[in-house]
Structures are given as structure tokens and as C-alpha cells.
Amino acid sequence: MAIPFLIVFLILRLIEVWAVFNIHSLEYSKAQITLMGWAYDLQWVFYILGFLLILNILLGMIFPQAVRVLVKITLTLLIVLQGGLLFYFTKMLIPLGTDLYAYSLNDVFLTVKASGELNLFNILAILFVLVFVYVLLGLGKWIPLKYQTAVVLTVVCYGYLIGIGIAKNAQKEQPAELERNLMANKSSYFYDQSYNYFTSNEYLYFDFFLASANSGDRLVSKDLTETNYPFLHSNDYPDVLGPYFDEFDTLPDIVFVIVEGLGKAYSGEDAYLGSFTPFLDSLSGHSLYWKNGLSTTGRTFGVLTGMFGSLPFAQKGFMDQAPILPLHHTLLSLLKTNGYFTNFHIGADKNFDNVNYFLQYQQVDRILDLTSFDADFEETPSKSGFSWGYPDKAMFENAMRKLPVSSQPQVSIFQTQTSHDPFLIPDEEKYLAMFEKYIQNDLISLPLTTGEYRKYKNMYASILYVDEAIKEFFQAYQKLPKYENTIFIITGDHRLPEIPLATTIDRFHVPIMIFSPKLNRSKRMHGVTSHFEITPTILSLLENRFDLDLPSKVAWKGYVMDTSSTFQSKISNPLMRNKNQLVDYISGEYVLADNQLYQLYDNMGMEPVTDVAMKEKLLTEFATYKNSNRFATENNRILPDTLAVYIPKN
After folding, report:
1. Does 151 or 425 have the greater pLDDT score?
2. Residue 161 to residues 36, 41, 222: CA-CA distances in angstroms?
3. Which letter does DSSP use for residue 388 in this model?
């Protein structure tokens, strides 16, 4: 059975390379990816066969027939699972890993169902493949393989592995993340990550984490002196936005627009794929605009806790701890105690990713999700009869119908979701035609060909759709009486991973924009700023203008938004790639990703560097964060009871 098993894996690699390079526009060599990929595949195949050989020797003499069937079933399942992992990778260009375990079974089921892949045809196809592979493995007994031939074949395979290993060690630089992912055996990646997930005790807590907490080159110096509360420090943040605003009439309304998948790669000035957000581009010319903005997570699960709470990640994302959340502050809870009315709007299910628990903790006054739409709205089109909910235009319109009109100041959050897999949008033909016109008239001078853009036409069309939805939202909002006294903050939750990433940090690179009729000037900011910095910055602006009741100590992970006109990075923050995948850390103008050190440049370009001292510095800072993160979130040590705005009854 080993020979068919080996041959199938080698053929699956050919299928994977063919599929990936046909679906995506990649600049790598197919031959190199295939040859290196075969090396990883052989390593995995030999590991599995070696394990099953031991099993066969130990039990085969006692239960020969049963062991043979067990081995055959095991190999069949491994082949089918490899096929499933390949299918996931061809769509996402990211191998499936421990992030799978961070979602509930219901969330996984909803995601698969929304993608349109969970249907009768696919279920029958999987059953057919299971039977076919099981029969195929049985044909191995007809292969006329003699002992000497088997030895020669084994030597050749191991010789190939050794040769590839020597070639890999001779490489001076670690391959880019995407290249590593392309070459990796997807089963080996998944099972290695799973093993580490279930056996790792990576995080230990030590008191020495305070030793290197303060650094003179940061935007805010934090006096981290509470050993039992590792993130607690004095609420002493400068008002960096004040000079850009005229006087407000009263406490301003604050509106957040969080755009699903709005990456800097295809939005705004210097977008290396060209900008597909014409309205946001025009608005940015009248705004404070951060071109070097960073989300805190590579998926949506961390955008609310990062933007509004500047909170640590815990192990799987802060909201994964629900329903029992550690005591904490957020922009929402603190402004609510200062007289604000709070609103949250989304076209999807508020229960996904435990968003409802987080909002309930903040005692948000009004939450509208897919259960709160009027009857005249239609849900997003679907492939399987199930969709994520209502499209973005409907979300904005439904929210504007019901937004309270009163003199009380309000915080309103609008979170889009249409520009998400499976990228189905209303009036699809209109936006696909808009996409075609756009790439031919506006993007013709870019190095990518129209054919390369068309490989991602549904994704780009969905970005054009949401940009138009935001435009219509602004047109409607301008008619409200308090529009002139409103601050708008617009950003993306992360970049779309389905469009190939240029660098490791590309998945986090998002535009951040602040617009208000009260702005006295616009400005392009080149300082690096993350979502962690938004809440401390907005609160400092309001506190400087109004008599807010804010706590003397806070636990914000972030600093303040960097308004520098030239490129610089004066933050040190962790970045969580996926749930359960905390492997990225930025400190100053350096990034540690997958244990490789990079230097940052303007527009979030990055190059690998060799600097042993700097790498050790970042490794120490990152370990400090991981220890503090685990201790604070698992032991309710973000805030002491005396500082909590709310102490929920769990």
C-alpha cells in the first residue's frame, strides 16, 4: 500500500501547483515549488509509513487482517484529508492550522455553509473519493516490486531528501511566507500545528516582565509598576489630534465605519495593486489619513477589542473567553459613563465570534444585526441557501432609518461584511461591469495585466460595491442635524488573504482615516499606527476639550496615533495572524515574524535583516507580552475591581 500512497501524494502536489497557479497570480517558479514541495511531501509520507510499519510489526503477527484493514483505512483518510487541506489552501493561500480549533463547531459550520461548498453534490463526491482511494490502495499488491528494487527506490528517495536538505541549508535567507506556504505539505503543517496546540505549555508567567517595559523611543512612556496587573499604567496620553480640530459645538458624535477586508494594497495612495476605493480616496483628501496603518489581527475576530479596548489577545482572541470576560475598559464603556448613547450595526449575526458578549459587557444601548432588518430588505445572495446576512447597502440604510435623533451624544459603529468570502453581492453584473471599466480605464498603467486582475474580479467588485455603499451612507448622514459636529473613523479590519500577500505584514496593512467637518486641515500621516492606538487617542482628544470622567489608570496596549509627516515607527505591539497564531511582533522599525527579523520601510515594505542583538531584543519583548497576556487574561488581572466601570454578574 505504500507505493500507491506515495504516488497519490506526488500527484496531489502536481494538482495543487496547477490549481494554485491557475487561480492566483504568482511570480514563483512552478518547477521549483513542485520539486521543493515533493521534498516536504516525501518527508511526510515516510514519517507516516514509518509509523504504520511499527504498528504493523507490533500487531500484525497477532491480528494480521485487522491491522491491514486499519492501515488501509488510515491511509485512505490521510489522502482525503490532504485533498481537503489542499482545497482550503487553493482558496486562501494560507495553510489550515490551529486557527481551526479557535472556532466553535457552529461557527465552522456556518462558514462552510456560507461558502456554498456544503451541498449534496460535494458530499457524494467525498464519499465516492473515499471508496475510490480505498480500492486504489488495494491495487498495490499487484505491483511487481522485488526486495532489491524496493531498497533502490528507498535509497533514491532518501538521497533526494538529503540533496534538497543541503540546498535548503545553503540558502542565505529564509523564503518569504507565501513561498514557504506553497512548498509546505499541508497535512504535515496541520498535524504539527495541532500537536503543538494540544501539548504546548508555551506561556509561563514571571515577575521580571517589568524590567524592559519602558523605552525612551516610544510615543508614550508607560509606568508599568503593578506586578499583579502587567498592563496597568497611568492614564497620561497626549492629545495629538487637538491641533487639527476646530472647536466642537458640544460633545461630538463619533461614527466608526469598519470595512471588511479593506487592505491598503488596493485602497488609497500608493496602493501597490491600484486603488479600488474611489470614494474613500476622495474623502482621504479632506481627512487625517494614516497610510501606514495596521490592524491588530489578520482576521475579523480582533477588530472590536483592538480598536475599542486596546486589549490583550488572550490565547484565541479576547472575545473567545466569553461569556466570562476579564474586567476591562473600552472606549464604549467609558464614553457611556460620560453620557454617550452607543449603537452597533452589522448585517451579519452578532453571535459570531462572540461579538454579542463583548457588546453586552459594554452595555451597548442598541444592537442591530441580521435579526433587526425591515421586511423590505433582501438578504445577500447565496450559493447554498444560506448567507452571512444582509449586504452592506442594506445595513447602512436600515441603520439610518433607526438611528436615534436626539441631543445626546452618540457613538455609532457600522461594520460591513459583504466583501467576504464567497464575495456575493447584490446586482453582481453591475459591479463586475464596473470592475471591467475600472481596470481598463483607471488601472491600465499598473504592471499587472487585466487578466491577472480578473482572477480576483469578484473580490475587487465587492470592494467597489462597499466603497459605493459608504459613499451613499455619507450622503445620507450629511442630512442629519449633528453631521457638522461628528467625527468619522474609517478603517479596514484586515486585508483580504485571498489576494496573494506581498509580505508577512501585508495582511495587517490597512488604511486608517479620520474625517470631520470640524477638521481645520487635512494631512497624510507617515507614522506607523495600529488599531490599538485609536481608543487612547480619541479619549485624549475629548478629555482635552471637555470635562470627561476618566480613570486615573488604564490598561491600553496601544500608544497614540503617530501624526509624523515622515516615516517612523514608535510603537511596540503584538499582531495576531489567526486565532491561536501569535507569531508576529512589531517594535520600532523592526518586525519579528515566524522567528525572522525584518526591517520596515514606508508603505509597510519590509526586508529580512540579520541583527542578532535586535532580534534578541524583540524576542525578549515578545516573550514578555506573551507571559503578561496569558497571566492577565486567565487570572482577571487586566484591571482591579476599583477601576472597573462595570462588574457583570457572570
Report:
1. 425
2. 9, 10, 51
3. S
